[in-house]
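Final report, Chapter 2: Outcomes

The project's central promise was a pipeline that accepts a single protein chain and returns its three-dimensional structure in a standardized token representation, suitable for archiving and comparison. That pipeline is now operational. To close this chapter, we reproduce one record exactly as it appears in the project archive, with the input sequence first and the structure output second.
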Amino acid sequence: MKAVILLSGGLDSATVLALAKSEGRACHAISFVYGQRHEIELAAARRVASAIGVAEHVVYPLDLRVFGGSALTADIDVPKDAADAEGIPVTYVPARNTIFLSLALGFAEARDANEIWIGVNAVDYSGYPDCRPDFIEAFQQVILRGTKSGLEHAEPHLVAPLITMSKAEIIRRGTELGVDYSLTHSCYDPDASGRACGHCDSCILRRRGFQEAGVSDPTVYKA
């Protein structure tokens, strides 16, 4: 089985890559440079791809700063200490997972891949609408109805193995698989040296996950 893996360099995507490898998939990773303020995550993606092992790692350039509309792609402050706030946070990037999955789908068709693996999570997900099961189900219909591989083979199949797991459960599973989480990066607002802020949504969920998992957090925080 050949699989395309969306690899951001974060905790979740590293775990997804390790899961796919453990299930015998030939993994073709794709990462995106999309104008994100935390572009340092691309270095983490390369480290993770090298450590776990992939057949190919494509880094796809696009600039979502042209659209803006997000604290990650525009001159908008990243909210701090607000991980449990209701509603969709300003760190939501308009249609990001739809865009990323569309590009991953093109990559998968070009490589005759059977699957596309993505690390979306509907439990600890900060309120993003494109991390929910109904979004994944809807995009699967796009594949089946709008691609040659979908019409002829009903593939590639979307695989979202973390979607019902808590962050602690993800960390425990990744630890069992030998994932080195010190190679990953999650912070939306790191300093110039790459240290995590410790207060953005992503940092809070990551730190809480390690605490609840009973696993030592390897993240280097500013404070």
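Archive annotation: Helices lie at 11-22, 41-52, 96-110, 133-146, 148-153, 167-176, 201-213.
This record, like all others produced under the grant, will remain available to the consortium after the project formally closes.
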